[in-house]
Amino acid sequence: MEKQILEWLAADEYLGMDVDELATALGFDTTDKFKELVKCLVKLEDEKAIVRGIGDRYFLPDRTGIVIGTVQLNPRGFGFIRVGDDLDDVYVGEKNLHGALNNDKVKIKIDGKQSGSSLEGEVIEIIERGQKQVVGLVKQIQGKFYVSVDDNKFGSLVLLSGNRKGAMEGHKVVAKITSFEQPIMGEVVQILGHRNDPGVDILSVVARYDLATEFNEDVMAELESIPDVVAAEDKEDRVDLRDELIVTIDGDDAKDLDDAISLKRLKNGNYQLGVHIADVSHYVKEGSQIDKEAISRGTSVYLVDRVIPMLPHKLSNGICSLNPHVDRLTISCIMEINSSGDVVDHQILPTMIHSTERMTYNNVNKILDGDKATTKRYEDIHKLFFQMEKLAIILRSKRSKKGAIDFDVDEAKVIVDKKGKPTDVVLRTRGISERIIEEFMLVANETVAEHFFWLQVPFIYRVHEHPKKKKLLNFATIASVLGYKIKGSLDHVYPRELSSLIESAKGKPEHSVISTLLLRCMQKARYDAQCLGHYGLADEYYTHFTSPIRRYPDLLVHRLIRNYVFEQKLDGQTIQHFSEVVPQLAESSSNCEIDAVNCERDVMDMKMAEYMQSRIGQEYDGIVSSVTAFGLFVELPNTIDGLVHISTLKDDYYHYDAQYLQLVGERTGNTYRMSDRVRIKVISASKLDGQIDFEIIDSKKKKRKPKEEPVHRRKGDKRRTPTSRNLFSRSKRPANKSRSRRGSK
Fold this sequence. Notes:
alpha+beta
């Protein structure tokens, strides 16, 4: 075993593993073998034949500290290498990057030195370039054309040495990198338009994430065979629900209606809830051109002034959309739910519906609020919505008792005019009807997930794992400063504990801060072939079943339902096929979702900054949402936030108190903490960077006597506080506003 271990650690491709990873890699999958492995590792370590590095990873002595990571470049030239959730990022100075650019996958050697709170390292190999094309503005400098890259972390102009496709100064373009040697060279592959043309700003962000905005010719050709109305032969072998009272409830401007609801009381007092979802898998066959394109896109992307759909409009707004008063093919999850919110029986069926009415959230909310005119307009069906409300309250109560976390973070909506110019930023409102639909979608997703878990067949789940102890510790520290404590050990915090903490903050100024901070400490929800549970929902079983028009995993769930349940394909070949493809599709869907979320966030940041550009000098009240070594962030009531840089705090010299997460005045003892209310003035806003800068003009300052002697400035210290990674970046703090589209959990 010792020989096996040493040979494995000596392999060229070996880059560090902990004991669990070594056991898996070497095939030591029994308890006895694992114990023997641990003993061998201890013996080899005692003999100095191997060493244990960061993250308890084992190395040969001459290879200590070599890891792979991704470059996160800072606009000032240095970078941090992200090497995994379990390890801290590694600081790499500009001279030690050796040509590595933002998002490059690199091999680094950690030298053991410290830069503030981070280890230092050096790039020893660029494994893969992270950006093979860039988006930017064409500039002419001394007769040569360059692309000034929009991403300020790229750190270099791109010389257009090849085909410009007619691009001139002022054009926004997509350029392919042809050489990474200095000077970096490239050629234009697409002209997006002139920088002042309406919509080009958003197109530039979309192009940065390489999101397709048009469907290719193969997809459009394949669409020709899809009918505009449900064919007679497609109605066969389906449960006919066309005479049932079934409604859709969506936003006013929604066109892709992929879920409908029916509800009735049974004689035994239980509720029969029907969640009827567009049967997209009937039209989008596995391996088709439309299917391949949907896999590539992974999800629809919802931007300020447009939607980039996963499926062509003929499907998303046409034959698959559950429009009122027309026949539509659906897959229905029909559940019997008792007064405690338990699903005591369910069926998953191929169905056909004829939606009675296309309802909007606004109109349902009006009915539930007693609006007489709206109630009269829908007098034949209005009682249905009061039944829905009762069941939703039951389901919500059950979720609350389980400990599901309701972050309830405010979300903003940017209003733009016909030219794409932002005219207002307002809070999205969530009424009773939105919560009703959310509860119904959640219970349907849970029911479908549990059904297939017990079938023990390959399936795709929506998983949300237990938060990392380190992140929970950071959150607990911040929460304690605000007067909130997590009960029990941080090794295994139950969702109920965090949920009760959020609830206790509701109605208080710090609620938004607590919710946002807790959201940041959570792991990202993702798709997986294993049923790992959903921590935030306090669920053992969860999937995405309810939105196949806009999310590929939901479409895959429908395909699995069709194969396993409707067609009873449980043979070895089918099981083997899906056991191979589901993990791949889960990973690609998760990656597509990350790109979509980041694109949506960047567009929002850009439009918010553009909105504030015309408000320079104006004053607003806000709340301190984050405190860092380089300043503090202030959030306005409409969720717009901006940086108050430490250099603008003129009344004193402020130090960052990491223990209490506050800025403390050296002379006055004035403090700035999260949830402090302040009045700010807008001093700058950059649409390109999506950043806004504020200056505090008034605050209710708290004084405290410093517990320690002040840290005196050393010679050459230019009002910068050492010891924090955050010092090295002025970038906007990560946005964690959850997307408003239903079922995003």
